[in-house]
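This part of the workshop introduces the protein records we will be handling. Getting from the letters to the tokens is the skill we practise here. An example says more than a description, so a record of this kind follows:
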Amino acid sequence: MFEIYDVAILPLIIGIVALFKRAGLPAKYSPFIAVICGLAFGIFYLDVELKQGILVGLMIGLSASGLYSGTKNMMQKDGD
């Protein structure tokens, strides 16, 4: 099952998305990369059934995507 320490996957996914952006990936694809990474972690890292891994992976990816965009939007508003 999803353990509380697995929440550390969120900042890891955010870091991976930031690396892709530094490598030249357009920002509009960042949520897609976050969801793909979340799915990968959910399926391959977590020790759960496939269906549960997909569901938890989507949740992690979407959370990381929202956290990433929310932080980005906050930083842009502070800069104005």
Q: What stands out?
A: The chain has one domain: 9-69. Residues 9-69 form one domain.
